[in-house]
Design a protein that fits this description.
The complex is a heterodimer of chains A (296) and B (324).
Chain A lengths: L1 H12 L8 H5 L1 H22 L3 H4 L14 H9 L2 H32 L5 H11 L4 H15 L6 H4 L8 H12 L3 H9 L4 H12 L1 H17 L2 H6 L8 H7 L12 H35 L2
Helix pairs in contact in A: 3-16, 5-16, 6-10, 6-13, 7-10, 11-12, 13-16
Chain B lengths: L16 H6 L4 H35 L2 E2 L7 E2 L3 H9 L3 H31 L5 H13 L2 H11 L6 H8 L14 H13 L3 H11 L3 H9 L4 H12 L1 H16 L3 H7 L12 H10 L4 H29 L8
Antiparallel strand pairs in B: 1-2
Helix pairs in contact in B: 3-15, 4-8, 4-9, 4-12, 6-13, 9-12, 12-15, 14-15
Classes of the chains: A mainly alpha (296), B mainly alpha (324).
């Protein structure tokens, strides 16, 4: 028995994989079934988005379009101010993400490297805000923005991100800065560097992996956000993609043309950017999620 | 918490005034502390303007009648009284939210754990499967809802077509009073099971020391016994973390139900969840005072659930590193 264990341990030590049995092979059955369950809806929406309108209603439905109709994607832009929605979304996502990265890293630096009265209490309060349901702060925030006259502008969607960038990002970056040896800071202090210089020239470059995580999480969160645009935006030229997409169905029919294929084309275009970003920066994204769960 | 972070309090009288104000000993440290406050400034403003201020304001508003245009009117506890006794949708929306959560939380948690366990075997192709499972989480909630209302289309959706092919008449799904809630549960499970929860479980599983499994194998423990007595206790902190987040997330259910029904709550209010109830009161009827009262009831419910989970966790969560 112990010989076997030793053999296994030795095998692992020299990099030989774990022994595979029939059980492991059988595991591919549920893995493949789940993969189909998770991927099929994407396949179905891409396939639907390329069908001509009559084929979309044909019965029984076809798995693939007989001839892919790429013009559906062009029709989306003619049908609704889709290009404008994309532009609005990009403005919001870029400004929100920039604000989140800049301000949350500065705040995280303060929490991780300075000693002052109230720091730990403030940090606990920061973590506490993560528990808070959006509904309870949403109403007063809405009143604030409406008194300032900024309802139906993009400002409420990104300005708050410039003031701390949210508890989760602060927490993530603070944890990361704590892993960087303090000796780096101290050496720079002896050389006469200012506190801000230490942040900009020493800590920020070392934080790049964590900052990437913040960028990705912030990009996806703002790209996907539905509740905030729903509350603040009410004219179609101000819509973001998520909001416009949900109201796309309501666009006036032109000549009784069925909409489903266009709706799916619009959905595919909305899904694509976060998915592409994930593929490009998968490593950072997974790290960030895992870091939040492990070091809780 | 502050022990060991702040210096000992002896010699307070000899400290410079500024230093004692910011909780340090010397002027050098005080200058440093001021820099700390400067870097913290954006968040202090954000905390006050976007969190603490709104929380206090919404608490005060909950005792008023307020439509944003005319000044708020103090009405005492009337809003809370209306919620508990005079609002036909209050209790039903709350129960619907619980019904939803009681299915989504356990199925979602064990589903995610199951997926993570399969990936944790490290078979060739694991990266592919992990990405395939994770894709659904990257789908924006609006697109997710639209995608699934198309798949669940009662007449030409692929699910009902497949059911019809084997002789089962498919239900009306989102359009059916009895099937609307199960449909939304299905959609949101699909959208979350392979996501962050699964990744966190996977990390938790990879943190279990191999030696424990080897020791258990030497003792002759079967596969199930190893899972039950090694894996489960070792990942219980991860499980707890996912459970707390899962319950909060489930109780806040909103977007999917809003998009598939166009905000009207579905057939016979079958998808009128509590978060939708708050939203409608605030932004369709502009009853800001009443909606604030509902939001505060919501906060109390969320806090109560989280508190009970923390208390109960002492019975089943095992921290390998001792008290943390």
């Amino acid at each position: 028995m112990s010989e076997k264990v030793f053999a296994e341990r030795a095998a692992r030590a020299v990099g030989v994989g774990r022994r595979r049995g029939v059980g492991d092979l059988l595991l591919y059955v549920p893995l493949i079934i789940f993969a189909i369950i998770f991927v099929f809806p994407f396949f179905w929406s891409v396939s639907s988005s390329l069908k001509p309108p009559d084929e979309i209603l044909s019965f029984p439905p076809t798995l693939l379009p007989s001839v892919p109709r790429w013009s559906n994607y062009v029709r989306v832009f003619e049908r609704a101010p889709f290009a404008r929605w994309i532009l609005n979304t990009i403005i919001v996502v870029v400004l929100a993400t920039l604000g989140a990265v800049l301000s949350s890293s500065l705040v995280a630096y303060s929490f991780a490297r300075f000693r002052y009265r109230g720091r730990d209490l403030l940090f606990m309060i920061t973590l506490g805000t993560m528990m808070l349901p959006a509904q309870v702060t949403l109403i007063p925030q809405y009143i604030l923005w409406s008194k300032l006259g900024f309802v139906n502008t993009l400002l409420p969607l990104f300005v708050p991100q410039w003031f701390g960038g949210g508890a989760f990002n602060i927490f993530l970056l603070r944890q990361f800065i704590l892993t960087i040896p303090r000796e780096f800071d101290e050496a720079a202090i002896i050389d006469g560097a200012s506190r801000f210089h230490i942040f900009r020239a020493i800590l920020l470059p070392l934080c790049v992996p964590a900052l990437m995580t913040v960028v990705i999480i912030s990009f996806i969160a703002n790209w996907d956000d539905y509740l905030t645009p729903l509350v603040y935006l009410n004219s179609e030229m101000q819509y973001t993609l998520a909001l416009g997409l949900s109201l796309f169905k309501n666009y006036p029919e032109t000549g009784g043309e069925p909409l489903q294929h266009l709706l799916m084309a619009a959905s595919v275009m909305t899904i694509l950017p976060p998915v592409l970003l994930f593929f490009i920066a998968q490593r950072y994204f997974v790290q960030g999620i895992v870091m939040s769960g492990i070091k809780g | 918490m502050t022990d060991g972070v702040l210096p000992a309090r002896t010699g307070r009288s000899t400290r410079p005034l500024l230093a004692s104000l910011v909780g340090v000993n010397t002027m050098m440290q005080a200058r440093d502390a001021l820099w700390g406050y400067v870097f913290l400034l954006p968040w202090i403003i954000g905390l006050v303007v976007f969190f603490l201020g709104p929380i206090i304001l919404s608490f005060l508003l909950s005792f008023t009648k307020y439509d944003v245009i005319t000044p708020p009117q103090f009405v005492g506890l009337a809003n809370y009284e209306t919620a508990f006794t005079g609002d036909d949708l209050f209790w039903p929306s709350l129960w619907r939210t619980f019904e939803y959560s009681i299915v989504v939380v356990p199925v979602g948690l064990f589903g995610s754990l199951l997926l993570a366990l399969m990936l944790n075997r490290g078979l060739p192709g694991t990266g592919f499967f992990r990405t395939a499972f994770f894709l659904s989480t990257l789908t924006p909630a609006v697109a997710l809802a639209l995608l699934w209302s198309w798949i669940l289309n009662p007449d030409i959706g692929p699910i009902n077509v497949a059911l019809r092919a084997i002789g089962i008449p498919g239900p009306g799904w989102l359009a059916d009073v009895h099937w609307a809630l199960p449909s939304v549960i299905l959609i949101n499970l699909w959208g979350s099971m392979g996501g962050n929860t699964m990744l966190i479980f996977l990390a938790g599983l990879q943190g279990v020391p191999q030696e424990l499994y080897e020791a258990a194998a030497i003792d002759g423990a079967s596969g199930w016994a190893r899972f039950r007595h090694v894996t489960l206790p070792m990942i219980s902190p991860t499980f707890f973390f996912n459970l707390v987040l899962g319950v909060i997330g489930a109780l806040k259910v909103f977007t999917t139900a809003f998009v598939v029904t166009g905000g009207n709550g579905g057939p016979n209010y079958a998808l009128w969840f509590f978060a939708l109830h708050i939203y409608q009161q605030a932004f369709s009827f502009f009853k800001m005072g009443y909606a604030s009262a509902l939001a505060w009831i919501f906060v109390v419910i969320l806090l109560a659930f989280t508190y009970f989970q923390v208390v109960l966790s002492r019975r089943w969560v095992y921290y390998a590193g001792g008290d943390e």
